[in-house]
Amino acid sequence: MGRTVLVTGVSRYLGGRMAALLAADPQISTVIGVDVVAPDSPIAGTDFVRADIRNPVIAKVMGEASVDTVVHMGVIATPKQAGGRSTMKEINVIGTMQLLAACQRTPSVRSLVVKSTAAVYGSGPKDPAKFTEDMEPRHSPSSGWPKDSVEVETYVRGFARRRPDVSVTTLRFANFIGPRVETALTAYFSLPIVPTVLGFDPRLQFIHEDDGLEAIRTAVLSPRQGTFNVAGDGVLLLSQAIRRARRQTIAIPSLIFGTVGRTLSPTGLADFSSEAVRYLTYGRALDTRAMHRTLGFDPMWSTDEAFMSFVRRDSADGEVDVA
Amino acid sequence: MGRLTLPDADVIPFGSPGDPDRPGRGLGPSKAARLVGNTGPQPTSPPAAAAPTSRSATDADRPEHSTSHDVITDAEIPFDGESWLEFARRRLMGDYSVDDFGFDPELTDRVLLTLVRPLYRSWFRVETTGLENVPADSGALVVANHSGVIAMDSVMAQVALHDEHPAHRHLRMLGANLVFQTPFMGEVARKAGHTLACHPDAERLLAAGEIVGVWPEGFKGVGKPFGQRYKLQRFGRGGFVSAALRTGAPIIPTAIVGAEEIYPMIGNAKTVARILGLPYFPITPTFPWFGPLGMIPLPSKWLIHFGEPIRTDHFPEGAADDPMVVFNLTDQVREQIQQSLYRLLVKRPSAFG
């Protein structure tokens, strides 16, 4: 008998691709995709259930299908995607609580994989050069998506304590980047003039979108209990990334950086919230030894290569003239 | 603030003739240096871990215990034949790499060190000894005294290890978080290879075989009044010792003479410091009275001595968590640096000689 996997957040790009990827795997017989809105086009091999994970309907779905693996990708990164910060917070935090409550009540659930973010480590001058999974943040995130993710992880740890029979894998991803994925950071790099914080040059790490999905698939197929940093090898400095992307840049003093950034990005797709500004000031890097050794996952793309695959996407669109 | 008076901490007056015949201590690798696996100067075959610069063979023949500055400087040697124009072009394309700490070796070698080298060679006329105590291809912890209002001493130690050591080692320093939250300073510090003073970073660098530099006196050292020159301040909490113990890296007590006189700090404007959020605000005979001109350091004569390494690999497992071992080792390092400072002061003809 094949496995039954439930994936949340399938109506967005990464969730949709994840569901399709899992559906194509011979070990998995059924993939149930859940989201608040329907996907733009049907996902191959996936039964879509339009359900708000914020209400208990989800428990019924899971019980009826006797789901054994839950992949939680439903945490939203920017208010724009959700239609406001309060909705976003509700989907992220209340949604996770409801999902975990449903998991706890469903005896068939054997493993839970959560897509979290390295943003839970915060960003600041007191950070070590690389974060390992057991380190506490030196500058706890105080708002937005990073704070939601911290809360999500707290609830996930609570669930892991209450259901010790379920293998819980939390993956803390560096920023997704690649030829197709759209994030606040890809929007930032696509701005006509890229603002940087005067006097700072943060270290950035990326994970290629295909690698990120592959990491989740690895965790689904051979569950490993624990929390893992997931990032491409190496780091890029922001200045270096902007030069490689052949972008125009302007250095803004940190005091007015957020305000200027929001002005330069009228669509609001690029994120200039206080947490994002801290990240663009101090950056962050992850220690990925546990990912290589314990999770058994080796990314195909380094940070640098992943970023270049994004740059090529932009230049193919004709937005950038490459020298 | 209570003034620290140590029985043996009297400052030797400047201009004292010293003892010119004092036997040099750095003529060959010491027993301890040999024990930590240092190969010492290798006139015929430079070590495998040599810096990516192309070097003339005469470089390695240079006597190790004393250095002269009339040799070819790095800046004059083109990098693998690459011109400055090609270099600038490649940099503008972002075609270079940094390590996980944000260290940009290329920028450091070609630009940053080139900028401070004249200070090292001509302004402070730094004489470096004891380089045979610094391993050529393995990790070590350089611990030195701190002085001179701004951390010029750490910059000069970096130049010394890069330019004078046969393996052209890069010094990876551990700095206060104030460094990394200050615009420009933090950016340059990371690119020059330095990182935050914390256990994980220290151990990561030592385990990777890097030469790590710490200045355990911290702001107490750089911001002390001129009257207390060459008196070592308290040595933090000994965190550097436990990092060395955990990785088994030798500790190299290093004495730097000369930095005390570059900005003789005769006063500390505490109110101004508090407003600016700084640990101290220096008042020197020239600063702030002469504005930016007052920031020109006085051309004191510098001596740097890398002392005999203290081994940490023969301690039993778990010694890093034994506070008594850590305290004793910290004291030993401190004492060795203090003694070394006195010896160098005697050797130096005068503060500006």
Strand content of chain B: 5-15%
User: Sheet with the most strands of chain B?
Assistant: 7 strands, mixed
Give the C-alpha Rg of chain B. Answer: 20 Å
Low-confidence stretches of chain A: 318-323
Globular, elongated, flat, extended or rod-shaped: what is the shape of chain A?
Answer: globular
CATH superfamily of the domain at 3-174 and 208-231 and 286-293 in chain A: NAD(P)-binding Rossmann-like Domain
Gyration radius of chain A, to the nearest Å? Answer: 19 Å
The biggest sheet of chain A, with number of strands, parallel, antiparallel or mixed sense and barrel status, is:
7 strands, parallel
Order of helices and strands of chain B: HHHHEEHEHHEHEHHEEHEEH
Structural class of chain A: alpha/beta
What does this structure look like?
Chain A has 323 residues and is an alpha/beta fold. Chain A has a domain of 204 residues: Rossmann fold (3-Layer(aba) Sandwich). Chain A has twelve helices and 13 strands. In chain A, the strands form four sheets. In chain A, strands 3-2-1-4-5-6-11 form a seven-stranded parallel beta sheet, sandwiched between helices. A two-stranded parallel sheet of chain A has the order 7-10. The longest helix of chain A has 21 residues. Chain B is α/β, with parallel strands linked by helices and 353 residues long. Helix content of chain B is 33%, strand content 10%. Chain B contains twelve helices and nine strands. In chain B, the strands form two sheets. In chain B, strands 1-9-6-2-5-3-4 form a seven-stranded mixed beta sheet, with helices on both faces. In chain B, helix 4 crosses helix 5 and helix 8 runs parallel beside helix 10. The N terminus of chain B is likely disordered. Chains A and B meet through strand 12 and helix 8 of A and helix 6, helix 7, strand 4 and helix 8 of B.
